[in-house]
Write a structure and sequence with these properties.
CATH topology: Hypothetical protein af1432
Order of helices and strands: HHHHHHHHHHHHHHHHHH
Structural class: mainly alpha
CATH superfamily: Hypothetical protein af1432
Largest sheet: none
Distance between the termini: 61 Å
Shape: flat
Helix content: 55-70%
Number of strands: 0
Oligomer: single chain
Strand content: under 5%
C-alpha cells in the first residue's frame, strides 16, 4: 500500500474525497510512492509560471502602489489558510483543498477586476472572458512545463471543481472540498478588501461598523478586550469577522452532514450545497459586499485610476491583434488554432501589472 493511501485511510472522513478513488488524469501517469495525486496537483500549481505571476497582479486596487494591500498571491495564500482550517475540522482531504485553493485564481489577468472586465468586453463576440474559465485553460493548455502533455495534467477532481466555478448556478455535483474553498474565498475577499480599503483611506472603520455583520464582530471584540486603540480595534474586528464565519460554517456543515445522513462522496455529490451560512450571516455578507461595491470598487478615487488602466489594456490588445507576430513564437502558433483575439487575450491575461505597463509604453507609448 502506498504511504499516502494509508495516511488518508486513517485521517479522512467517509464524505471526504480519497485520492485512492480519484478518476485519474486525462493523460495517465504512474502513481507516486510518497505523494498523493492531489499533492502532485498542488505542487504543479505552485511551480507554474501563472502562480508565480500572481505576486505582481492586483487584487482590487489597480495603480495603488504600496506594500500593505493584497496582491492576487497573498489573497490566494489567505484563502488556502482559511480553507485548510475548515478542511481539517471536517476531516476532508487537505491536499485536494490546497490544490483547489492555490489554483482558484491563476486565471486572473493584470489590473484585478478592471482587467477582467476589459478583456470580457473585448471578447464579447467570442465567448467573453472569465478568470475561472481562464484558470481551466491554463491548467489544460497554456502552461507548458512537461514534455508528455499540454497544461498541467491535473486530476479530474481538480479540473471538475474548476469547471464548477465556471457554472456556479449548479448547486449539485460539487465535492465538499470545492465547497469549502469557495466559502473561504468569499470570507477572504470580503474581509481583506475591507481591510485594504481602510488602509488606503477609501473608507473608515466607523463606516463599516454601521453594517450589522461588522458591528456584531466589534461588540464581541469590545466585550472581550475592552477599549482598544484604532489600529488594534480594526485588526481585532476583522480577525473576529473571519473567525466567526469559519466557526459557523464548520458547525453548520457538521450538522448538515448528520441531518442528511451523508456517508460518502456520492452522497455529497447528490446533495445540495452543504457548506452554507446562517441566513443572518448571509444577509450581513450581502450588505458588506454591497457596501464594498458602492463605496470602494466603484468609488471616484478607484475609478479615476481604473479607467485609464483599462484604456491602456485595450490599446495594447488592439495593437497586438494587428501585429500578432509581436507575441512570443508559441502564442503565434497557437493563434492559428484558437484565433488571434483569443490568443492575444491569453497573452495579456498572463502579464503582471508592471509588465503590462511596460509593454504598453513600449508598443503604444
Amino acid at each position: 500500500m502506498l504511504d499516502w493511501h494509508k495516511r488518508e485511510e486513517t485521517l479522512l472522513a467517509p464524505w471526504a474525497m480519497h485520492a485512492a478513488d480519484s478518476a485519474g488524469r486525462v493523460h495517465p501517469e504512474p502513481p507516486h510512492l510518497h505523494r498523493s495525486p492531489y499533492q502532485r496537483d498542488r505542487d504543479r500549481i505552485v511551480h507554474a509560471a501563472a502562480f508565480r505571476r500572481l505576486a505582481h497582479k492586483t487584487q482590487v486596487f489597480t495603480g495603488y502602489h504600496g506594500d500593505y494591500h493584497r496582491s492576487r498571491l497573498t489573497h490566494t495564500l489567505e484563502v488556502t489558510s482559511i480553507a485548510r482550517t475548515m478542511a481539517r475540522a471536517l476531516a476532508l482531504n487537505e491536499d485536494l483543498v490546497e490544490a483547489l485553493a492555490m489554483g482558484h485564481d491563476i486565471g486572473h489577468p493584470p489590473l484585478g477586476h478592471a482587467g477582467e472586465d476589459t478583456l470580457d468586453a473585448l471578447l464579447a463576440d467570442e465567448g467573453g472572458f472569465s478568470h475561472n474559465a481562464q484558470a481551466l485553460r491554463i491548467m489544460e493548455l497554456l502552461e507548458n512545463r512537461y514534455p508528455d502533455f499540454p497544461g498541467l495534467n491535473l486530476s479530474r477532481e481538480v479540473l471538475g471543481a474548476q469547471m464548477s466555478r465556471c457554472d456556479k448556478a449548479n448547486e449539485h455535483g460539487r465535492l465538499l472540498e470545492a465547497q469549502v474553498v469557495d466559502a473561504a474565498d468569499s470570507i477572504a475577499y470580503d474581509t481583506h478588501d475591507a481591510d485594504d480599503a481602510i488602509e488606503l483611506g477609501l473608507v473608515q472603520l466607523a463606516n463599516l461598523l454601521e453594517l450589522p455583520l461588522v458591528k456584531a464582530a466589534s461588540e464581541r471584540v469590545l466585550e472581550r478586550f475592552g477599549d482598544l486603540q484604532a489600529d488594534q480595534l480594526r485588526r481585532a474586528v476583522l480577525h473576529e469577522l473571519v473567525n466567526v464565519q469559519v466557526v459557523e460554517l464548520i458547525e453548520r456543515t457538521r450538522r448538515h452532514l448528520e441531518e442528511q445522513s451523508i456517508r460518502s462522496t456520492a452522497d455529497v455529490l447528490s446533495a445540495s450545497t452543504l457548506v452554507t451560512h446562517a441566513e443572518t450571516t448571509a444577509r450581513g455578507k450581502r450588505e458588506l459586499e454591497r457596501f464594498l461595491f458602492e463605496r470602494v470598487y466603484r468609488s471616484e478615487a478607484v475609478m479615476a485610476v481604473r479607467e485609464p488602466a483599462q484604456e491602456r489594456l485595450s490599446q495594447l490588445f488592439a495593437w497586438l491583434v494587428e501585429r500578432p507576430d509581436a507575441m512570443p513564437a508559441g502564442f503565434l502558433v497557437r493563434a492559428r488554432h484558437h484565433g488571434v483575439r483569443r490568443t492575444v487575450a491569453d497573452y495579456i491575461a498572463g502579464m503582471t501589472d508592471r509588465f503590462l505597463e511596460r509593454e504598453h509604453a513600449r508598443r503604444c507609448g
